[in-house]
Each structure stands twice: as structure tokens, then as C-alpha cells.
């Protein structure tokens, strides 16, 4: 490859990176439960940070990929919007008998009002190291953190119909 061709390729790749990061992806600052979500009442009542943390993790991990995610309501139809909702969350066990937690979510990516890709994510956790010293919401938080990372990384190459995590 000649020096000029290498420069052209480098400029083209840089242009692609700038295009991805130039237009932010808008998401809600709190990931809601889906209307048909199967979520235990105790999770809804006790793990009140879960929904907000999920959105934060998506934004945090997207930044690792140089994808700008901003919080807002972009129902105007212009720009890029990611709509995510929690579809399932379960919390069995505890620190004494062992944690068995799980969560699932679905999302759709829109560009200028047109749906361009959908995604589903699911994660399970038994609490990891020192699980006996963790509360149920903390262990469930590990699942939304992992799904936040999965979805953020999916934004880099949003394949339609993707199933992420423990699918």
C-alpha cells in the first residue's frame, strides 16, 4: 500500500469514528419496566436504584467505545435514540443460602424516527466473590451492570435481533 493510500484509509477510518461519536445516542435517564414486565414486587419496591443505574451503565460503557450517550427524551424523531426497558427480574435466595438473581431487557435503536435494530439482553448472577456479604439488590445490580455493558458495546455494531449476555 502506498503512503497516499494509507493516508486515505486512515482519514476514512477517522471519519467513520467521528461520525459515530458526533451524533449522540439519546436514552432515558431511567430504564423503565416494560408494561408486560415480569418483575417481583419486592424488586420494584426495594431495588429503587436499579432502573437509573442501568441507564448510567449504558452511558458509562458506551463512553469506553467513544460513543456519546446522553440522557433525554428524543421522541421528536430526529437523531439517534435507544429505547430500553426491563422485561424480567427475579431475586431468589439470600446471602445465607446463596443468591440466584437474573434480569432481562429489550431495546430498539432509532435513527431519525426509523427503527434500525432491536436487541435483547439477559444476565444471571449468584453474587460473585464475597456474595455472602452482599444484599439482594446489590447482586441484582451486577446483572444490570453487565447488561449495560452488553448493550453499550452492541451500539458499536447494532445488529438487528441481537441476543446478548446469557442467551
Summarize the structure.
With 167 residues, this protein is of the alpha/beta class. Helices cover 36% and strands 35% of the residues. Strands 1, 2, 3, 4, 5, 6 and 7 form a seven-stranded mixed β-sheet that branches.
Characterise this structure.
This protein is of the alpha/beta class and 167 residues long. It has a single domain (24-165), classed as 2-Layer Sandwich (Double Stranded RNA Binding Domain), CATH 3.30.160. The chain is built from four helices and seven strands. Helix 3 (50-64) runs parallel beside helix 4 (136-154).
Most strands sheet: 7 strands, mixed
Could you name the CATH class? Alpha Beta
Helix content: 25-40%
Question: Order of SSEs, N→C?
Answer: HEEHHEEEEHE
Which structural category fits the helices and strands? alpha/beta
- Report the C-alpha radius of gyration, rounded: 18 Å
| Total count of domains | 1
Q: How many strand elements?
A: 7
Please supply descriptive tags for the structure shown above.
167 residues; Double Stranded RNA Binding Domain; seven-stranded mixed beta sheet; 35% strand
Amino acid at each position: 500500500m502506498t503512503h497516499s493510500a494509507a493516508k486515505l484509509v486512515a482519514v476514512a477510518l477517522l471519519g467513520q469514528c467521528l461520525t459515530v461519536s458526533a451524533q449522540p445516542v439519546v436514552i432515558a435517564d431511567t430504564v423503565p419496566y416494560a408494561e408486560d414486565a415480569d418483575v417481583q414486587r419486592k424488586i420494584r419496591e426495594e431495588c429503587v436504584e436499579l432502573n437509573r443505574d442501568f441507564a448510567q451503565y449504558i452511558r458509562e460503557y458506551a463512553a469506553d467505545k467513544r460513543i456519546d450517550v446522553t440522557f433525554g427524551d428524543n421522541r421528536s424523531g430526529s437523531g439517534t435514540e435507544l429505547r430500553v426497558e426491563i422485561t424480567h427480574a427475579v431475586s431468589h435466595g439470600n446471602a445465607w443460602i446463596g443468591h440466584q438473581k437474573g434480569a432481562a431487557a429489550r431495546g430498539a435503536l432509532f435513527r431519525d424516527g426509523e427503527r434500525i435494530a432491536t436487541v435483547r439482553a439477559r444476565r444471571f448472577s449468584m453474587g460473585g466473590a464475597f456474595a455472602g456479604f452482599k444484599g439482594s439488590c446489590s447482586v441484582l445490580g451486577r446483572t444490570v451492570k453487565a447488561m449495560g455493558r452488553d448493550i453499550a458495546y452492541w451500539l458499536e455494531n447494532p445488529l438487528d435481533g441481537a441476543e446478548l449476555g446469557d442467551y
